[in-house]
Structure formats: structure tokens, C-alpha cells
Specification:
This protein is α+β, with helices and mostly antiparallel strands and 421 residues long. Strand 9 and strand 10 form a beta hairpin. The chain is elongated. Histidyl-adenosine monophosphate binds next to strand 6, strand 10, strand 11 and helix 11.
Length: 421
């Protein structure tokens, strides 16, 4: 017996109408992002593992436990991208688009891969739509990017979202916060922290704020706020971002615990969350990453960006209905099947959509087939019609039939389909 294959856990197939949601998200993204001057970039799925280690950080969960990595035949470690930012910056550096004094706005989308425990809204292959603005430290870029993200989400008619903001400070002021955090943590019994937090305490103390364990959360209730330790430049930067958003009447919450799971962030960080998609509430996340290009071997070019999880967007969107085909051509017998084939092709050349019946089955069964496709009109061709040079047009909505000359069919269909548009 031959083996039956099934898809890999955490990987999905998308048929219509689900797949239409992704096409719709991409089309809306392209429309909104291009209004802001963003240009499309497509990067490879596979990159050297070191890019992600260096970019995302060796101490992050993504790099430590979630990457799909393998050795190539020359013994080099490769990884399926777990996110897009590191690859986009690598590509921009290589293409000379990450130079001081030059602003580059790039968007990209596609599959990402993280070996996480699959659940609703969390897959091992998932899709992101991703925007990066390189080359400016200006808080106007942060505010503009957040406005663009919200305009994009609005275009998808997604409601009930919460925007959360925080500032993570910069390389200059972060050490002061680490110090305050360490002092605070000295008074917290280590044995009450989860294993992850005990490790983070040594390797990446900022991530302590991100722990979802109830016990750790309660121990960190009175943790010092980053906001109280950022330098005056960072404070001013964040205040400008907030002011610009407020001027646009954008409602946001300050979340002192929002540190994000990737190590490249500094200054503004943000997330958009929803309570309507189960426990994986983050629909989009992003922030500023001013040291990343340098970290990846490029010039010291600042940047800010975000990514939306397309699976999560699809969960929040109304179902997109498939377009209705215009016609279904029925050949009443084999003598007119070639004519039916010709007619179907001519109609597609004239921009109509539809199928033809290939089999010599009864009219009734072909009509059933036509109605399954959802076609608006059935076009019936028999030997009488072939002799007369006519066609029988059946409106599948009301069952009304009409004879139409073959050489008039294109204008007849145009009148019927578009008369009210
Ligand atoms: P992230 O927060 O890791 O950020 O991911 C962004 C979004 O991708 C999340 O908010 C979520 O919607 C979606 N996502 C993440 N993991 C999964 C998963 N396993 N299954 C389904 N959806 C998922 C980044 O990736 C950054 N590169 C964003 C960024 C761009 N920051 C600056 N520029």
C-alpha cells in the first residue's frame, strides 16, 4: 500500500476562502504602505544562522529554541527565517540602501518559521507583513509608522484593538536601568522565580519584565519603570512620538512591561493586541532598532519597523467571499463540444471568467455542475444553436432563458453583468 502523507504539525494549507484573506491583506498593505513611500522587497527564506544570532540576540527564545536550522553540505549553519527584520537589514546593507543620510522605506511579506508549540494564532510556519524605515532617528518616523500600521488595520476593518507603547531607552541609559533592576531583584527570592527568569537575571535582565508566569508577575509588581531611568534624549524622543499620536487622536496605553522578545529594540516599542483571538493576543509588534545595522556589519544607520501576523489578522477579519464566475458553457452533445471550447476561450479573452462542461452528461447534470461553480449565466449550445449561430443564455439567479446571437454574446454579457455598475 502506498504511504499517505499529511502536513507537518504547525504548518497549514490554505484553500479558498481562507487563502483569499491573505491576498486581501497583501493588496491592502501594498495600497496603504505605498501611500507612505514604502517599496516592496522580497528576501530569501534561508539565511546564515549567524545573521539571526547576531541580529535577534543569542539569549532570545527565538534564537535559543525556536529556529529551524540545519547544516549545508559545506558545514555552514543555515536557518529558515524566524522573522524578517534581520534579513531586510542584511539585504539593505548589501544593496547600499542603509547609508547615513539616506532614508529607505521597505515592506515585505511571506512565511516565517518558529518551532513553538502550535495553538490558535500560533503556527510553526506563519506569515508576516513587515515594514522597515531605515536611516532616521526622527520620532516623526516612529509616529508615522504607527499611523500607517493603524491605517492598514483599519483598511482590513479590524476593530477592538489596543495599541501599547513603551520606551526601552538607548545604549547610553539602558545600563542605569539594568542596575536599578538588579538592585530590585536582589530583594526577590530567586527560588520563587521561574527557571527562565533565573537565567534571564544573568543574561538578559530586561526580559524579566516580559515573563507571563503569574508568580514572576506578582514578584515584579513594584519593579522600577524604565521610563524613570531613560536619558533626557530618549525621554524627549518618546514624548514627541506620544504627542504626534495624540494630535491624530490615536488612543494608546503605556505598558511598562512591554520589552518585546527580540534583543535589537531601543527607544520606542509598540504592540497592537486583540482580546478576540485567544491567548496569542499580539496582532502586530515593532519598534526602533538603532544599533542593528551596525551590529550586522553595516554603517551605523538607525531604523524603526513593525510586523503583523497575517494568521492573526485573518482570524479577526470578516470572511472574504470568492468572486462569482460569469459563465458556465454547456455542450448538449459531443458534436458541439469543440464549439463550446472555442466559445469559452473567446469569453476569457474578453475578460469574463468561467468554465465549460467537458463530459457528455445530461443537461440536468451539467446544470448541477454549473450551479456548483456558482456561475451567474449558463450558456447552452446544442446542434440547433450551432446551426442558427445562436446560444441559449440561462440566468442562474432567476432561471430566465434567452436566445442570443453568438456574435452578440460579449456585449450581451457586458450589459447584463455591468449594467448596474
Ligand atoms: P514579533 O513580535 O516576534 O516581531 O512578531 C510580529 C508578529 O508576528 C506578532 O505580533 C504576531 O502577530 C506574529 N507572530 C509571531 N510569531 C507567530 C507565530 N508563531 N504564529 C503566528 N503569528 C506569529 C517581529 O518579528 C519583529 N521582526 C517585528 C519588527 C519589524 N520589529 C521591527 N521591525
Amino acid at each position: 500500500m502506498s504511504e499517505k502523507f499529511s502536513r507537518i504539525k504547525g504548518f497549514a494549507d490554505f484553500f479558498e476562502p481562507e487563502s483569499l484573506a491573505y491576498t486581501h491583506i497583501e493588496a491592502n498593505g501594498r495600497k496603504i504602505f505605498s501611500r507612505y513611500g514604502f517599496q516592496e522587497l522580497r528576501t530569501p527564506i534561508l539565511e546564515y544562522t549567524a545573521l539571526f544570532q547576531r541580529g535577534i540576540g543569542t539569549e532570545t527564545d527565538v534564537v535559543q529554541k525556536e529556529m529551524f536550522s540545519f547544516m549545508d553540505s559545506k558545514g555552514r549553519s543555515m536557518s529558515m527565517r524566524p522573522e524578517a527584520t534581520a534579513g531586510v537589514i542584511r539585504a539593505a546593507i548589501e544593496a547600499g540602501l542603509a547609508r547615513p543620510g539616506q532614508v529607505s522605506r521597505l515592506f515585505t511579506w511571506g512565511p516565517m518559521f518558529r518551532h513553538e508549540r502550535p495553538q490558535k494564532g500560533r503556527m510553526r510556519q506563519f506569515h508576516q507583513i513587515n515594514c522597515e524605515c531605515l536611516g532616521t532617528e526622527s520620532p516623526y518616523a516612529d509616529a508615522e509608522l504607527i499611523c500607517m500600521l493603524l491605517a492598514f488595520l483599519k483598511s482590513l476593518e479590524i476593530r477592538g484593538l489596543t495599541l501599547k507603547l513603551n520606551s526601552l531607552g538607548c545604549a547610553k541609559c539602558r545600563p542605569h536601568y539594568h542596575e536599578a533592576l538588579r538592585k530590585f531583584m536582589a530583594g526577590v527570592p530567586r527560588e520563587r522565580l521561574c527557571a527562565n527568569c533565573r537565567r534571564r537575571l544573568e543574561t538578559n535582565p530586561l526580559r524579566l519584565l516580559d515573563c507571563k508566569e503569574a508568580e514572576c508577575r506578582s514578584l515584579l509588581q513594584n519593579v522600577p519603570h524604565l521610563e524613570d531611568h531613560v536619558c533626557s534624549d530618549c525621554r524627549e524622543h518618546f514624548e514627541t512620538v506620544r504627542l504626534l499620536l495624540e494630535r491624530r487622536k490615536i488612543v494608546y496605553e503605556i505598558d511598562h512591561y512591554l520589552v518585546r522578545g527580540l534583543d535589537y529594540y531601543c527607544r520606542t516599542t509598540f504592540e497592537v493586541t486583540s482580546d478576540d483571538i485567544g491567548s496569542q493576543t499580539a496582532v502586530a509588534g515593532g519598534g526602533r532598532y538603532d544599533g542593528l545595522a551596525k551590529q550586522l556589519g553595516g554603517d551605523d544607520v538607525p531604523g524603526v519597523g513593525f510586523a503583523c501576523g497575517m494568521e492573526r489578522l485573518a482570524l479577526l477579519m470578516n470572511e472574504i467571499s470568492a468572486p462569482v464566475p460569469d459563465f458556465f458553457v454547456i455542450a448538449l452533445d459531443d458534436s458541439v463540444r469543440d464549439a463550446a471550447f472555442e466559445l469559452s476561450e473567446d469569453l476569457r479573452d474578453a475578460n469574463f471568467s468561467g468554465e465549460m462542461g467537458w463530459q457528455s452528461t445530461s443537461l440536468k447534470s451539467q446544470l448541477r455542475q454549473a450551479s456548483k461553480t456558482g456561475a451567474r449565466f449558463c450558456i447552452i449550445i446544442g446542434s440547433d444553436e450551432a446551426q442558427e449561430g445562436s446560444l441559449t443564455m440561462k440566468d442562474m439567479r432567476d432561471g430566465v432563458q434567452e436566445k442570443v446571437l453568438q456574435n452578440r454574446v460579449v456585449s450581451w454579457l457586458n450589459d447584463k453583468l455591468y449594467e448596474n455598475k
